[in-house]
Amino acid sequence: MPDVAALRAPAALMTAAALRPEDVPEGFLPADDQEVFRGMRPSDPDCARLLRMVDAASGRSSSADRDVPQSHVAYYRADPAATLVEHVLRLPSGEAAKRVDAARDAVAGCPVIDFGRSGDSGWDGHGFDQTGLERRRLSHPEGQDDAVAVRYSHPDGDQRYGLDVIFAREGSDLLVLAAPGEFAGDGERRLRLMEARVLRRLANARDREKVVLTPSPGETPTPRP
Predict the structure, then answer these.
(1) CA 164, CA 181: separation in Å to the nearest integer?
(2) Per-residue pLDDT of the chain (225 residues; tens, 9 = 90+)
(3) Which long-range contacts (CB under 8 A, 24 or more apart) does 89-97 make?
(4) Taken in order 36, 163, 95, 223, is the CA torsion positive or negative?
(5) Is the pTM higher than 0.85?
(6) Contacts 24+ apart (CB under 8 A), 133-142
(7) Torsion from C-alpha of 113, 146, 20, 217, nearest 10 degrees
(8) How far apart are the first and last CA of the chain?
(9) Angle between helices 95-108 and 45-56 (to 10 degrees)
């Protein structure tokens, strides 16, 4: 079972939309919810805004609304370094659509993410040292009310490092998925399959009326394996 940090999160939502161990590429282990882009400072303001929006959906964010039904899942891999985080929130009416629109605007204004150079190239588990992570749209099966999926990457020989960011909406439900780090070969394929699978689950859960997002009394303790 993934290590899920939940705040008033309906169990049905977590079951339907949460990343599962069988979803993630090989070598990933459960981790705590986190602001995965903390400390990363792109030079472009739109790029910086996009990364802040991902972290703002985290339960660890200082701006997180503790009264919003939400669930959070994270995984990490030490070598090669990479992280997967997923945030699902039921927001007040109209707010999810605003966040997806804001993400779309930020992506449009951010063709290349430039973190500057610090002597080495690649991803060290904390940040990117290579300039010029170039934008590429990700195509995933349609089904969401609204979705933005983008990859910023730089090839390093036969490796691929960068980050994927997805904002998807079903009604008032917002899913944010981010995958910074190094993915190559079968790992990149598994990453794409994982993203598509989670998006389908979000849409299917609503279609089949298996997810009813209502706040439960009190805070839900963090499940343990």
Answers:
(1) 9
(2) 433 444 344 555 555 777 888 888 888 999 999 999 988 888 889 999 999 999 999 988 877 787 888 889 999 999 888 999 999 988 899 999 999 999 999 999 999 888 765 434 455 555 555 557 889 888 765 656 689 999 998 766 556 788 999 999 988 889 999 999 888 778 888 888 899 888 888 877 665 544 444 433 333 333 333
(3) 89/57, 89/173, 89/174, 89/176, 90/13, 90/172, 90/173, 90/174, 90/213, 91/172, 91/173, 91/174, 92/172, 93/172, 95/172, 95/174, 96/169, 96/171, 96/172, 96/173, 96/174, 97/145, 97/146, 97/169
(4) negative
(5) no
(6) 133/162, 133/163, 135/107, 135/110, 135/111, 138/164, 138/166, 138/192, 138/195, 140/166, 140/195, 140/196, 140/199, 141/196, 141/199, 141/200
(7) 110
(8) 6
(9) 150
180, amino acid identity? P
Q: Which residues contact 109 (CB under 8 A, 6 or more apart)?
A: 44, 45, 46, 47
Rounded CA-CA distance 153/97 in Å is 27
Residue with tokens 């299917």: 204
Q: Which residues pair with 153 in a beta bridge?
A: 134, 162
Joined tokens for residue 137 = 């749209």
Phi then psi for residue 51, to 5 deg, are -70, -35
